[in-house]
């Protein structure tokens, strides 16, 4: 059954299609802005006008959705630029829903891009105040939904945030806006390049007091179940490549839609190795994406989504 391509196709268990992929995009204030992110070749920070082009491409290429991250004009202790009606993400979502209405738009809900200290919640002394952060996250989610976001995705890892966001959305009439919870989100070294892109490196300490210990797989299942009990519609495992076992067990134990985030560092190291001529980028990427799907992920967030879809048009499945 391995002798020819068509025969191999007849016993193929897993596929990756462009519609399985979600493209992360970074939006900045202004117009005509397109700034490459050095540590993530192929990824740019863009203003809304340029973002519309990228989103148009994503739609044309048949990608499943995009997820937006905002880099605001100012940052403060409480991340107030993150929940303004005229914030960068809110403006971008309105433009997207006007210009590319059929492309599902997910928004990342977290304070780290908007706080002056770069932590994912508000501080009490030197620690993140979990409960004081919850109403701010709910407010941010409501402002995204009001702008037209199709789904909201909290990535902050505060306890109880899914319930707080669900209640906040319902109270404002957004009872049909689904929540994708970053449930098993680990304190990972692989977020480095993203923090360059989102300008969200913590100014002191690290995120280990709220993101998960990479040693804990069973806890990932528990986190996913808690988020589901609080009202999550979809759960996420992040990073993806180093956590395939967690993807498999969360899928097996919950039966819920499971998304996996192939994060910035996981992307950057493949691109860097390919730049040195050490691996073939498209073959390596296809293999990794296939592996993430084989582990049980329904959709994958990946910076490689457009490149994958372009090749897919020409060559077919991975
Ligand atoms: C924000 C957030 C992060 C990522 C997605 N949302 C960074 C972090 O927690 O520091 C990482 C994505 C990536 O590395 O590609 N909370």
Describe the structure in your own words.
This protein is of the alpha/beta class and 318 residues long. The protein has helices at residues 5-10, 48-60, 88-99, 130-147, 161-171, 192-198, 218-230, 244-254, 264-275, 281-295, 305-315; strands at 21-27, 34-36, 44-46, 65-70, 105-109, 123-124, 127-128, 151-154, 180-185, 234-238, 258-261, 299-301. Strands 1, 2, 3, 4, 5, 8, 9, 10, 11 and 12 form a 10-stranded mixed sheet that branches. The two termini are 17 Å apart. The mean pLDDT is 96. Ligand PBG binds at residues 108, 110, 112, 120, 155, 191, 194-195, 207, 263-264.
The molecules bound to the chains, other than polymers, are: ligand PBG
Can you tell me the CATH architecture of one domain?
A: Alpha-Beta Barrel
* Coarse shape: globular
Rg over CA atoms = 19 Å
Number of strands: 12
Q: What's the N-to-C terminus distance?
A: 17 Å
Keywords:
41% helix, TIM Barrel, binds ligand PBG, two-stranded antiparallel sheet, 16% strand, globular, 10-stranded mixed sheet, 318 residues, 11 helices
């Amino acid at each position: 059954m391995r002798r020819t391509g068509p025969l191999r196709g007849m016993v193929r268990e897993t596929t990756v299609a462009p519609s399985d992929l979600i493209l992360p995009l970074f939006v900045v204030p202004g117009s005509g802005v397109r700034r490459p992110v050095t540590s993530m070749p192929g990824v740019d920070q863009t203003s809304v006008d340029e973002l519309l082009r990228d989103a148009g491409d994503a739609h044309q290429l048949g990608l499943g959705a995009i997820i937006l991250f905002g880099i605001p004009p100012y940052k403060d202790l409480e991340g107030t630029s993150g929940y303004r009606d005229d914030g960068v993400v809110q403006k971008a979502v309105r433009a997207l829903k006007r210009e590319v209405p059929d492309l599902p738009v997910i928004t990342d809900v977290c304070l780290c891009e908007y706080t002056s200290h770069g932590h994912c919640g508000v501080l009490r002394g030197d620690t993140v105040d979990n409960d004081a952060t919850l109403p701010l996250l709910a407010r941010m989610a409501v402002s995204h939904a009001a702008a037209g976001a199709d789904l909201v995705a909290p990535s902050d890892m505060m306890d109880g945030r899914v319930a707080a966001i669900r209640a906040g959305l319902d109270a404002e009439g957004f009872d049909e806006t689904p929540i994708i919870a970053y449930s098993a989100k680990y304190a990972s070294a692989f977020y480095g390049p993203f923090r360059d892109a989102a300008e969200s490196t913590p100014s002191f300490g690290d995120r280990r007091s709220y993101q998960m210990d990479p040693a804990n797989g069973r806890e990932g299942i528990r986190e996913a179940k808690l988020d589901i009990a609080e009202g999550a519609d979809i759960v996420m495992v992040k990073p993806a490549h180093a956590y395939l076992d967690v993807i498999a067990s969360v899928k097996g134990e919950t039966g819920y839609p499971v998304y996996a985030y192939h994060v910035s560092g996981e992307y950057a190291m493949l691109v860097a190795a390919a730049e040195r001529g050490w691996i073939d980028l498209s073959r390596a990427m296809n293999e990794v994406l296939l592996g993430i799907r084989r582990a049980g992920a329904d959709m994958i967030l990946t910076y490689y989504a457009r490149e994958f879809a372009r090749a897919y048009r020409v060559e077919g499945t991975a």
